[in-house]
Amino acid sequence: MAYRNIMVVGDYNDMSAVAAKIIIDIILEKPDCVLGLPTGKTPAGMYGCLTQLLNDGKVDLSRVCTYNLDEYVGLGPDDKESFHYYMNSMLFSRTAFSAANTHIPNGLAADPEAECGKYEDKLKRSGKIDLLVVGIGINGHIGFNEPGSDFKSRVRVVELAETTRKINARYFKSLEQVPRRAITMGLQNIMEAKRVLLIAGGNEKAPALARAFNGPVSEQVPASVLQRHDDLTVIADRKAAGDLSG
Ligand code: GLP
Question: pTM (2 decimals)?
Answer without folding.
Answer: 0.97
